[in-house]
Amino acid sequence: MKNLLLSLAASSVLAAVVPTAHAEAPITAVQGTVAKPTIVLIHGAFADSSSWDGVAKKLTAKGYPVLSVANPLRSVGNDAQYAASVIGAVKGPLVLVGHSYGGMVISKAAEGNPEVKALVYVAAFAPEQGETVAGLAGKFPGGTLGDALADPVALADGGKELYIRQDKFHQQFAADVAPKQAALMAAGQRPVTMAALNEAASGSAWKQLPSYFVYGTADKNIPLEGLRFMAKRANPKDVVEVKGASHVVMVSHPDAVAKVIEEAAQAK
């Protein structure tokens, strides 16, 4: 199982200020423009929406509408379908941002929506059709997520879901985040199903849309060479490597991540 699950991550979404909305809030309150498209943030596994707080704060301060989508983390297909239904109700142009497993989601959810102008992958998976999170995470050596996982939790439907052990969360997932903050993140982490990590991607929207990549060089969930491999084959508009940053680069370096997102939003 260790080789099978060498990855995944955290992320999530939130925003503070008026232009921010959550999936539970009226979508009609969020409307992007050509100059300020709506920024849609989609988190990955082992995190909740608070992991986007720093990024959302910086974007809303510059006038960008921000929408936080709660990612169910149950299956790639269903999660992407849910995200697509939410963004489909948003008026105006969009930039989709995915962290870790959230990259699998935006790669499918963006398909067929003419309002999506760019994709931003934040320490995220950018899959080719047929690829899985587990397969991409194990494609290159260096990931240590498998050793940090707790025993799978059995679900009523026969499936299993995964958590990162709280005593290993800081070093595995958020090594460059303050210990007290990392402890709160560990307590609030949202689990992902094993099925989701092994489900083949059915979308690769980065082939049709401009893409941008930002990730840390000290990521322990997705090996650095894996991140570089996915970024290179996508032929992105920009790639930013944040030296020494962990898998939750959006938490530890919100300025760098927000800057890439704004670059994507302003591109013609």
UniProtKB/TrEMBL annotation:
Superkingdom of the source species: Bacteria
Q: Per the UniProt record, which residue ranges are transmembrane?
A: none
Please give the Gene Ontology molecular function terms for this protein: hydrolase activity
Every copy of the AB hydrolase-1 domain together lies at 39-259
Task: Name the keywords, alphabetized.
Answer: Hydrolase, Signal
InterPro entries to which the protein is assigned, alphabetical: AB_hydrolase_1, AB_hydrolase_fold, Sec-Metab_Biosynth_Hydrolase
The residues forming the signal peptide are: 1-23
Q: Per its UniProt record, what SUPFAM superfamilies does this chain match?
A: alpha/beta-Hydrolases (SSF53474)
Please indicate if the UniProt record lists Magnesium as a keyword: no
| A family per Pfam | Abhydrolase_6
* Name of this chain's protein: Alpha/beta hydrolase
